[in-house]
Each structure stands twice: as C-alpha cells, then as structure tokens.
Automatic annotation (TrEMBL):
GO biological process, one term: microtubule-based movement
Protein name per the record: Kinesin-like protein
Keywords: ATP-binding, Cytoplasm, Cytoskeleton, Microtubule, Motor protein, Nucleotide-binding
InterPro entries, sorted: Kinesin-like_fam (IPR027640), Kinesin_motor_CS (IPR019821), Kinesin_motor_dom (IPR001752), Kinesin_motor_dom_sf (IPR036961), P-loop_NTPase (IPR027417)
Gene behind this protein: Kif12
Domain of life, per lineage: Eukaryota
Gene3D superfamilies recorded: Kinesin motor domain
The keyword Cytoplasm belongs to this UniProt entry's keyword annotation: yes
Keyword Nucleotide-binding: yes
UniProt domain Kinesin motor: residue ranges: 6-354
Family: Belongs to the TRAFAC class myosin-kinesin ATPase superfamily. Kinesin family.
C-alpha cells in the first residue's frame, strides 16, 4: 500500500484463423518462453518481454491463472481499486479473452472450458467471499463509450448518454449510472450477458462481431463493518477488540474491453462504420499518449492529458493514480497484421514502465 507498483502486462497471441491459413499468411510471432516473444519478418526482427506470454495453445484457464487475475480479485476484496483491460487490433481476441465465445447467451451458455477472465473472476470472487466468511455487499455497473458518449448498458430502455463529472473526492465519475446488487454467479453472469447484447457491434472485413464501443464492467465490493461479539467462554482479547472495530472496506474490480484499433483500408469500413472507427482510434490514441507520458520517471512527467477523451478520464485512476492494473495485450501472429501487431507490442512495452501508488 502506497508503494510504487508497476502495471502488470501480459501478452496473448491468438491462433491463425482459417481465412489467414487459406490465404497463405505466415506466422511471424513466436513465443520464446519466460515472458519473451519474437517477431521475425522482412525488415523486422525484434524481441519483447512481458510478465507472461500465452501462445495460441493456451487455454482460458491458463490465461486466468497465469495472468495474476486471481490475486487481483483478492486485492479488490481487500479494498483496492483493481482494473484489467484487454486491447489490440480488431479481431485479435480481446473480447474472447475477457468473456469467451461471442455467441453465448443465457439460453445457450458457453462451455465451462471457454469462459473468459470475467466469469472466472466472478466465480473466484464469490468463492473467496464464502471462504473468508466476510459479509460482502456486491453490485455491478456496466457502461459503454460509443462515439464519445457514455451510455449505461444495464438501464432499461434504449441506451441514452450520461454526463461524466469530476469531483475532488471521487475523481471522474458517471452521473446517474445504474448499479445493480447481486449475490449469485447466475445473477452477475446474467447482467454481463444482458449488457453485452446491448453493446454496439458490427461486421466488417476483419471481424464479424467487431465491438464499436469501449465497455467497462465494474464490480463494487463492499465489506460491511463487523461488530463481533466474543464467543462463549472468551473475553475481549486483542483479537476480539480489533475485529469489533473493523472498518468497512470498499474495493472495485473493473473489466475494460477496449474496441480494437482499425485501419479503414483493411476493414473496408465506410459511412457510419468509418465514423465509429475514427472515434475508436482517436480515443485509443489519447490513451496511448497518456501511457507514453506516464511511462516517464515521475520527476520528468509533464501534464497528463486525461481530459482528451472520455476513455482516458474514466481510466485516470487505473493508469496513474491509486489503482492496481493488469493489461492483457492481444495480437494476431499473421504476417498480414504485422504493422498493427508491432504497434500493440510497442504500446504494451511502454505500459510496463507505468507505475501507480495503490
């Protein structure tokens, strides 16, 4: 607590798709083990290091256990502000890593082996809550940033824009955002699927289910203050009095599914799709700019322009403030995606130098 903590950055390399294989694309990304990955292609030969690298054969469970996600859940219960976000080129597997198959619904749930970081974290959170015997109050809020509008994905009726405010005590926050309490795994998974189905998606040349918005699902974890009484035959020793005076703690676990970066020439987007792509890319550019400045030593940092986009405002606490953050960079190994893959790898490498003070 209060010590400088680096962002934890892990990399996931998705398999080549059937289309890429038929087209004759070459695999240009190779895992070297020990958190290193090598990119080898014409005029490009580079090695990058991360906290962990998951290659095409890695299971969803391996990503959950190897990324440090379980520890992040425990820290949220302990009262810390925790964030995990997935990013990469459109179609590189960010949403799959967080949620699992896109076709799942309450009527057709995904196979347990394919569930993503979100569902596995929910299970872990509820198991931890029960094993600790702690009296936790859990609630969830879910929003998307679409064309620079913040919209609630859990409120009934068509999504409408909500104002983004700032205060000295809370920092940036969304006004009138709905927060729904839950007590079971079924209830929170239902909220996740309901909200995800309302999120804006479209098809283009690189992705049949391209996310057209950034989505943030936040789990609020509040441990109610414990007023314990001594067990029969026990007096109020040091342990009893400490437990009786235990203050309530409030932690958060925020999952951020960033819309993939896009090159309009590659996706074939036009009209509304093109407007959406430009909005996505502008906000990702603002995020990249903030990360570049935050990666500098604290004494050499200039003003961090969080106000440049709605996305950076909402992630300000996670990136440069008092939070604990895990970043999952997702890339394609295809030679055709080399430019975007290198961009993601450089972006993720810069993020490894960012520190916060939880």
């Amino acid at each position: 607590e209060g010590r400088e903590t680096r962002l934890r950055v892990v990399l996931r390399v998705r398999p080549l798709t059937c289309t890429e294989t038929r087209r004759g694309d070459q695999q240009v990304v190779h895992s070297l083990g020990d958190g290193a990955v090598h990119v080898s292609a014409a005029r490009h030969d580079a090695t990058f290091g991360f906290s962990a690298v998951f290659d095409a054969g890695a299971s969803q469970e391996a990503v959950f256990e190897g990324s440090g996600m379980r520890q992040l859940v425990e820290l949220a219960i302990d009262g810390f502000s925790c964030t995990v976000f997935a990013f990469g080129q459109t179609g590189s597997g960010e949403t799959y890593t967080l949620m699992g198959p896109l076709a799942q619904s309450e009527a057709q749930p995904a196979s347990p082996a394919l569930l993503g970081l979100m569902q596995r974290s929910f299970t872990c959170l509820l198991e931890q809550s029960r094993s600790r015997g702690s009296d936790l109050a859990l609630s969830a809020s879910y929003l998307e940033i679409y064309n620079e509008q913040v919209r609630d994905l859990l409120s009934p009726g068509p999504p409408c824009a909500l104002p983004l405010r700032w205060s000295k005590t809370r920092g940036f926050y969304v006004e009138n955002q709905l927060s729904v309490e839950f007590e079971s795994l079924e209830a929170i998974v239902s909220l996740l699927l309901q909200g995800s189905q309302r999120r804006r998606t479209s098809a283009h040349a690189l992705n049949r289910h391209s996310s057209r918005s950034h989505a943030l699902l936040t789990i609020h974890v509040r441990s109610r203050a414990v007023s314990a009484h001594p067990a029969p035959g026990q007096g109020w020793g040091a342990q009893g009095s400490a437990r009786g005076a235990c203050p309530s703690k409030q932690g958060t676990l925020c999952f951020v599914d960033l819309a993939g970066s896009e090159r309009v020439k590659e996706t074939g987007s036009s009209g509304e799709l093109s407007v959406e792509a430009n909005s996505i890319n502008r906000s990702l550019l603002a995020l990249g700019h903030c990360i570049s400045l935050l990666a500098k030593p604290r004494g050499k940092r200039t003003h961090i322009p969080y106000r440049d986009s709605k996305l950076t405002r909402l992630l300000a606490r996670s990136l440069g403030g008092s939070g604990i953050t895990l970043m999952v960079a997702c890339i394609s190994p295809s030679s055709r995606c080399l430019s975007e893959t290198l961009s993601t790898l450089h972006y993720a490498s810069r993020a490894r130098r960012v520190t916060t003070r939880p």
